[in-house]
């Protein structure tokens, strides 16, 4: 596999398109978070008094209803809580909608419209603890750690610089009316939040540039890859289709040859067929061929002509077809069923084989 130092060529449009389909797009989570934070602060500045008034009215009404025995007995605490919850949701809806709209805009602005169903498929490689440790302790992990330290330091410093000069003013507010104290604290908190949001926006913009640089570096190609891709683009669609068909035929031919060495074929009875081979050297039997419909019929025909036993078991055949890739060992969940199946085949054919490890 070529090293990073060999990848000197910029990514071709095809490489970029393929990477986009796989979800490999430069995107900054920090910038998204900063824009959503600004949207939340802006909506609070506009709708804050209305939200505060609505929440105050809701709280007063709920306390009045709870303090009224007739109301509680008539509607119940659940209905009172539900009404209060709905009122709270309506009050904060402007802020929630503003944050949602901001999140959509900033994400579309970074990556465009990229509706990719493949990104919803689970990737079990991400659950690999070894790979996770490599990512955490590798260069990218150190970069992310440095970014987190910078973010916390910058935002904390801005908050401190905004708060410290006002400590004497806060101390002088002792004894003033609660509404006035609340308004003063709210104004101070809003000023600190806006300054922190501005710093977060700057960090997010820098992070977006870094992510794009990192993605460009990751997508770089070798000269040989560029030449090979150029040659493939020069081929006519008919020739490319012919090459794909020939590759499929060769793959099918190899699979049918593997059926000749299989121990058993599990069928369903014409829709699915899975050929299993077990030589005693591997921990479990291996799927050497599998197919659906016409390919399943071909597998059965080859197996019957070669004298390989064909056993019809609809649930097992369908489960093996869906769960086990070609040339892969069966999972532990199938050990007992396959062990019983092979034992039956060996008894029927009057031959012995070590199957204890598959049980």
Descriptive report:
The structure is a single chain. The protein is mainly α and 359 residues long. The protein has helices spanning 13-21, 29-66, 69-111, 129-137, 139-163, 167-172, 178-219, 223-234, 237-259, 294-306, 314-323, 335-349; strands at residues 264-267, 272-277, 286-292, 310-312. It folds into two domains: 25-112 and 122-223, no CATH class; 249-358, secretion proteins EscU (name from scop). A four-stranded mixed beta sheet has the order 3-2-1-4, sandwiched between helices. β2 (272-277) and β3 (286-292) form a beta hairpin. α2 (29-66) runs antiparallel to α3 (69-111), α2 packs antiparallel against α7 (178-219) and α5 (139-163) packs antiparallel against α7. It starts with 12 loop residues before the first helix and ends in a 10-residue tail after the last helix. 16% of the residues are buried. The model is unreliable at 351-359 (pLDDT under 50).
List the helices and strands and how they pair.
Elements: H1 13-21, H2 29-66, H3 69-111, H4 129-137, H5 139-163, H6 167-172, H7 178-219, H8 223-234, H9 237-259, E1 264-267, E2 272-277, E3 286-292, H10 294-306, E4 310-312, H11 314-323, H12 335-349
Parallel strand pairs: 1-4
Antiparallel strand pairs: 1-2, 2-3
Helix pairs in contact: 2-3, 2-7, 4-5, 5-7
């Amino acid at each position: 596999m070529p090293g990073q130092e060999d990848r000197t060529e910029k990514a071709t449009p095809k490489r970029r398109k393929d990477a986009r389909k796989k979800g490999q797009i430069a995107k900054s989570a920090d910038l998204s978070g900063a824009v959503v934070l600004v949207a939340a602060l802006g909506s609070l500045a506009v709708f804050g008094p209305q939200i505060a008034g609505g929440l105050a009215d809701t709280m007063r009404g709920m306390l009045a209803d709870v303090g009224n025995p007739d109301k509680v007995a008539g509607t119940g605490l659940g209905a009172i809580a539900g009404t209060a919850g709905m009122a709270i949701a309506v009050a904060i809806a402007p802020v929630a909608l503003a944050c949602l709209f901001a999140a959509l805009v900033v994400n579309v602005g970074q990556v465009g419209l990229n509706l990719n169903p493949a990104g919803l498929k689970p990737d079990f490689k991400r659950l690999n603890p070894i790979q996770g440790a490599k990512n955490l302790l590798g260069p990218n992990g150190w970069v992310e750690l440095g970014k987190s330290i910078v973010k916390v330091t910058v935002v904390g410093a801005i908050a401190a610089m905004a708060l410290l000069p006002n400590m004497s003013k806060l101390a002088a507010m002792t004894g003033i009316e609660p509404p006035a104290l609340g308004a003063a604290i709210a104004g101070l908190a809003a000023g600190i939040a806006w300054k922190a949001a501005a710093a977060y926006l700057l960090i997010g913009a820098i992070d977006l540039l870094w992510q794009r640089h990192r993605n460009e570096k990751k997508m770089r190609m070798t000269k040989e890859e560029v030449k090979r891709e150029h040659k493939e683009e020069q081929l006519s669609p008919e020739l490319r289709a012919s090459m794909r068909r020939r590759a499929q035929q060769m793959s099918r031919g190899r699979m049918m040859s593997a059926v000749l060495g299989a121990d058993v074929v599990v069928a369903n009875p014409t829709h699915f067929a899975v050929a299993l081979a077990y030589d005693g050297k591997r921990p479990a039997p291996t799927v050497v061929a599998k197919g659906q419909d016409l390919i399943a019929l071909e597998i059965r025909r080859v197996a019957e002509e070669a004298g390989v036993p064909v056993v019809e078991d609809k649930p097992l055949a369908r489960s093996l077809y869906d769960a086990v890739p070609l040339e892969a060992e069966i999972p532990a969940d199938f050990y007992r069923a396959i062990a019983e199946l092979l034992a039956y085949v060996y008894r029927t054919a009057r031959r012995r084989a070590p199957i204890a490890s598959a049980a």
